[in-house]
Amino acid sequence: ALDGASGRGRGSGRSLPGLDLTKLLDGCHDLLLAHGGHAFAAGLTVERSRLPELRERLEMLTRQHYQPDQFITRLEYDAEVQVVDCNAEMVDWLERMTPFGLDNPEPVFLLRGARLSEIGTVGAGKHLRFKASDGGGTVDAIGFGMGDREKELRAAGRADLAFVPASNTWNGDTRVQLKLKGVRIP
To answer: Do residues 35 and 42 make contact, with C-beta atoms less than 8 angstroms apart?
Structure first.
């Protein structure tokens, strides 16, 4: 945000794993009035007149020290499971591990080659919903913000699912539901 009276701006940023904001800002210290933070989040104060030079320097430092493939979103999972493993006992076990955060990341599981059925969307097409099955059972799945994947998943009929199992209560009935983190058509 720029202050029109002082000509100074303040900003903050968040980063991705592998991109250390503190190191980038240290490389621009001569252009900044102040900066601080850590690898994943930082703040700065800068004169308005220095913004173009700051932008160029940040881009140059990023190109020098980081490779483009470092910024490809990767989804890592903790264990491969089957539908039968995704039960209330697993959800209870995961809930005892909370709160999740940077130092205690939420475990992500993989269900490989799941058969998909009853594929549709909810929330005015924003969210994906379907049933996933393997040889051992069937479970509900929801992908928040993934509604645009409906047609391609219908056509494929199968997918690898990265998810977190959770409880979902609807009309007094509690079931396990897979909260999708990623979907890949093999």
So the answer is: yes
How far, in Å, CA of 107 to CA of 77, rounded? 7
Say what the alpha-carbon torsion angle 58, 59, 64, 67 is, to the nearest 10 degrees.
120
What is the DSSP pairing of strand 137-143 with strand 158-170? unpaired
pLDDT tens track, the chain, 186 positions = 677 677 888 999 888 777 889 999 999 999 999 999 998 899 999 999 999 999 999 999 988 887 776 666 678 899 999 999 999 999 999 999 989 887 888 999 999 999 999 999 999 999 999 999 998 899 999 999 999 999 999 999 999 999 999 998 888 888 999 999 999 998
Residue with tokens 């205690």: 104
**What is the spatial distance between Cα 163 and Cα 139, in angstroms, rounded to a whole number?**
12
* Contact between residue 176 and residue 87 where contact means Cβ atoms under 8 Å apart: yes
Total-model pTM = 0.66
